[in-house]
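RECORD TYPE: inverse folding
INPUT: structure tokens
STRUCTURE:
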């Protein structure tokens, strides 16, 4: 029984282009990998669509006779629900345990011997997965919703690009959070506890079950500034339905980017600490 430590040199000016090509290749492989699961994608689309109807009717009932609640009108809530159902599969709050499984089996040792840092490699693959999900899992709910409900269409030209940036930031941030949850396997080996906690917290605090604007203002402020959860779903959806002025939209996306940078830095720190103590059975 021995320890294994691997060090990956950061990209320099002379190898940025090869590094980018490697990153792009891993992203493409991630896209192709998930493109093979066509039946799973179809089942996911059907499930998200069914829950879209349930969530939409519940939230529309909350508007009551006034037709608005917490600053959302009926069209904004419908868009919030249906785009959220599609974006859920793109961001992927749950269902990823590849790193934890590889730590448990010892296969993670081969990851440490590759020339790409584990955080970078898994991030690139996850971006490929998200790209495929954006085409297959996001579009169907977005197209189904307007057939049955009056939805809100963005009226400001700046909203689509801000939403696109917000969605990408949410994908990167969510990957970082999932990586940290999986990385607890370096110490715990059994990650079912952290995974359950993450599943419960992310579903409630990310705005999946209900818009966080339904909560008291002081609690909203605590969640947005003190946790990354609202940046996973609530922020991109609020940007899309133009819940706030453009300046506030940009500020929320800036907060997303700050959380993404912070969490990715934490991922690299945790990975470096884990490599110092990783023991692989057999040498």
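DESIGNED SEQUENCE:
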């Amino acid at each position: 029984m021995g320890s294994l430590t691997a060090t990956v040199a950061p990209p320099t000016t002379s190898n940025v282009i090869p590094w980018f090509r490697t990153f792009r290749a891993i992203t493409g492989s991630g896209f192709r990998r998930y493109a093979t699961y066509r039946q799973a994608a179809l089942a996911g689309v059907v499930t998200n669509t069914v829950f879209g109807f349930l969530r939409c009717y519940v939230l529309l009932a909350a508007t009551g006779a006034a037709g608005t609640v917490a600053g959302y009108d009926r069209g904004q809530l419908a868009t919030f629900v249906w785009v959220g159902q599609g974006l859920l599969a793109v961001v992927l709050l749950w269902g990823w345990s590849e790193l934890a499984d590889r730590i448990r089996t010892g296969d993670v040792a081969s990851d440490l011997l590759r020339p790409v840092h584990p955080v970078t490699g898994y991030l690139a693959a996850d971006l490929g997965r998200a790209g495929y999900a954006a085409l297959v899992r996001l579009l169907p709910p977005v197209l189904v919703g307007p057939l049955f409900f009056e939805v809100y269409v963005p009226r400001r030209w700046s909203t689509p690009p801000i939403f696109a940036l917000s969605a990408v930031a949410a994908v990167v941030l969510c990957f970082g959070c999932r990586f940290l949850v999986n990385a607890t396997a370096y110490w715990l080996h059994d990650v079912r506890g952290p995974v359950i906690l993450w599943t419960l917290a992310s579903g409630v605090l990310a705005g999946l079950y209900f818009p966080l604007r339904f909560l008291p203002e002081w609690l909203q402020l605590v969640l947005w500034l003190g946790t990354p959860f609202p940046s996973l779903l609530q922020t991109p959806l609020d940007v899309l339905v133009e819940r706030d002025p453009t300046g506030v939209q940009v500020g929320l996306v800036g907060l997303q980017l700050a959380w993404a940078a912070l969490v990715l830095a934490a991922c690299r720190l945790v990975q470096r600490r884990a490599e110092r103590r990783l023991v692989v059975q057999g040498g």
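NOTES: The CA atoms of residues 59 and 193 lie 31 Å apart.
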